[in-house]
Amino acid sequence: MSTTGASAGADQGASAGALHRLVVFGDVVGSGRLGMDGKRLARAAIYEAFGEAYASVGIEPGTVHQEDRGDGILAALRPDVPPALMVGRWIDTLYESLRAHNGRSRGRLRLRVGMNAGLVLDDGRGLVGRAVDLACRLCDSAPARRIMADAPDVDLLIVVSDWLYRNVVVEGGRYVEPDHYRRAAVVAKETAEDAWFHVPRLPEPPLAPETGGGPSRGDGPPPGRPSPDPAPKPSPAASAPAIPAAPAASPSRAPSGNRTYTAGRDIQVIEGTTIHGGFTGIRNEVRHVVREEVPEEAWEPDWDETGAEAEGEAGDERRTAEAAARTGVGAGAGTEADEASEAPGWYGEREERA
Predict the structure, then answer these.
(1) 3-state DSSP helix/strand/coil % of the chain, to nearest 5
(2) Where would I find the beta strands (DSSP E) of 49-164?
(3) Using one digit for the tens of pLDDT, what is the confidence trace for 136-179?
(4) pLDDT tens digits, one per residue of 268-292
(5) If DSSP codes are grouped into helix, strand and coil, which group holds residue 123?
(6) Which of 168, 212, 228, 323 is deepest in the core (most CB within 10 A)?
(7) What is the CA radius of gyration of the chain?
(8) Which residues lie below 8 Å from residue 254, measured CB to CB, with a gap of 6+?
(9) How many alpha carbons lie under 13 Å from residue 17 in its C-beta half-sphere?
């Protein structure tokens, strides 16, 4: 057999020996600042807490593959261990064990725990597989370290892979809190994965966005749960009335460093205000119409009046008498043509008599 064939056969044999197992990696927070005695106490505490958590789900000592990592533990569970127990009662017991330890000990223990599942190979020297690599990187990820640094009152942080969340955690169960997880991206070395972060007893972990511009990948509800309806889109600009250009702001009216926005018409003027984000426009839904009061003496007549007509009823009587004297007809007995002659210009054209 050629060297290439032997190598391929060895790789195939190694893959055939891999089993689908749940992988757990726990790491002590701030262990680099501990002295020798502090490291010893922390190691004893983490092994005790892991042992109590295993016992709570019926895992006997010696049936778990565990590797010591100095200030942490790498473990792989038997394939027959239900993963729902590990993301439920096991996490809850681990939290209670840490709380009891920190309540009675001077040396406080804080842990980050990464969890994943996949093909794992035990080659006699340790655990091998991408599932192992990802569990370790979830635990050591930048979001996980940032949470523990920004929230000093948090003693236990759980980080699970996207596969484990979607296939196990989201199904729920006793001690499982799928609604209390939040998603964030984990990017490290060859890893670019989504992960789910959880702090027991908190509705959500203190996971701050990585950037200040817009939502991060950690925002949003867990999968399988409806998102809130998006905000209604603004009306197209074409349907809104034309808005005149804003005049330059006067330094005497706007404080230094601020801007003045003038929308025109019946929309208010905004001064000394900073608007963040995309700005489309401002609409005033209530329109107020203000009419200017005009003095009665300034009213303009609908048609030209003589001085007599402007005098009121007395002027009307004189006008009637004068018309009667010209035509020889008494008041109130005028012909239709005479009546039309006294009408305003817009009444109609006066007919000429034959």
Answers:
(1) 35, 15, 50
(2) 65-68, 72-76, 111-122, 127-128, 156-161
(3) 999 999 999 999 999 999 999 999 999 999 999 999 999 999 99
(4) 555 555 555 554 555 555 444 445 5
(5) coil
(6) 168
(7) 43
(8) 260, 271, 272
(9) 12
